[in-house]
Amino acid sequence: MDKPTRLVHGGREPRRQHGMVNPPVYHASTVIFPTVDALESAAANPFEGVYYGRFGTPIHFELEGLLAELEGGAGCVTTCSGLAAITVALMSVAQAGGHLLVADNIYLPTRKLCAGMLARLGMTTSFFDPRITPAALAELIRPETVALVVEAPGSLTFEMPDVPALAAVARAHDVAVIADNTWATPIGFPAFEHGVDISIQAATKYVVGHADAMLGAVTANESWYATVRRTAVEMGYCAGPDDVYLGLRGLRTLDVRLARHADNALRLCDWLAGRPEVEGLLYPPLPDDPGHAIWQRDFRAACGLFGVQLKPCSRQALTAMLDGLELFGMGFSWGGFESLVLPVNLTGARSATRWPHEGPLLRLHAGLESADDLIADLKAGFDRLASAT
């Protein structure tokens, strides 16, 4: 079945649930076993079937199975947040004295995790230009390098690494490949077809899709899945059953939502390109974006998240523009039904490369509203910016 059909029909079995379309939510910690033999058998195989609430309930297994199927991985583990998913992925490859290679456009909390907890555990991290060539990447790999970590594209500055080419280099050196696939989702980027070993999603974003739950997911191939699941259990991570239900519900409409988000983003970009206040747009689906050729080759869909590089202006003018927006809320998340704007502060967010622009950088998430209404909101904002300049 094609992915849109699998989104609708996967992860549910009405015949097993009294004909109900959606699977039930299990609020459970303790699981009761009828016999000593059954209890001991479950304890001997805690990753198979229902054992204890923290290890997952039937609704967890439905969501995890569907995500693994969509991504093409051997299995998936859900966590309580996107950062928890990142932590599980990195701790799965971590070892004392190990070395990570991390793209410089990575999610900022990932950078902080590398500099904080992983460093205290004896791991070192080298950051690299996300547009690095395979040959240059090969020169950075050390005997102790355990993983390559990429985000395609980065969720602040939107550079597009060549994941298949970089993954081929990593594989040749027996280095695991970890990719943050939150921007594209499994609908937009089939990570495992492009050499990824462990794929991360902040399912809080597009999977949930309604700005009302925290959820993470780590999908892994056959070589890494058992380690990933064991790591999540050992760290005590588990997703709440209600949030898992909201993730499963959100998946049903992911395909059509992504299409609307992307269409609105393109409409906004087309309008913004003609604004005198705009220096450039950061969105790989645009033909003139530096990452467009890679996006067109490897990706099957886009989303609504993109960057707007403004020409230099005063803080007073920028705040006049943003504070008065009516449809674009200011917030740190994205992927929900609502449009958002975020003034981006890159302080501490880069170390291997330097951001070359002086003007303000805005991150926009195009929600599901009318594109014409969103454009009108931005136009009024630019009018306020001009008046305050």
UniProtKB/TrEMBL annotation:
<feature type="region of interest" description="Disordered">
    <location>
        <begin position="1"/>
        <end position="20"/>
    </location>
</feature>
<comment type="similarity">
    <text>Belongs to the trans-sulfuration enzymes family.</text>
</comment>
<dbReference type="InterPro" id="IPR015422">
    <property type="entry name" value="PyrdxlP-dep_Trfase_small"/>
</dbReference>
<keyword id="KW-0663">Pyridoxal phosphate</keyword>
<dbReference type="Pfam" id="PF01053">
    <property type="entry name" value="Cys_Met_Meta_PP"/>
</dbReference>
<dbReference type="GO" id="GO:0047804">
    <property type="term" value="F:cysteine-S-conjugate beta-lyase activity"/>
</dbReference>
<keyword id="KW-0456">Lyase</keyword>
<feature type="compositionally biased region" description="Basic and acidic residues">
    <location>
        <begin position="1"/>
        <end position="16"/>
    </location>
</feature>
<dbReference type="InterPro" id="IPR000277">
    <property type="entry name" value="Cys/Met-Metab_PyrdxlP-dep_enz"/>
</dbReference>
<dbReference type="InterPro" id="IPR006233">
    <property type="entry name" value="Cys_b_lyase_bac"/>
</dbReference>
<dbReference type="InterPro" id="IPR015421">
    <property type="entry name" value="PyrdxlP-dep_Trfase_major"/>
</dbReference>
<dbReference type="InterPro" id="IPR015424">
    <property type="entry name" value="PyrdxlP-dep_Trfase"/>
</dbReference>
<protein>
    <submittedName>
        <fullName>Cystathionine beta-lyase</fullName>
        <ecNumber>4.4.1.13</ecNumber>
    </submittedName>
</protein>
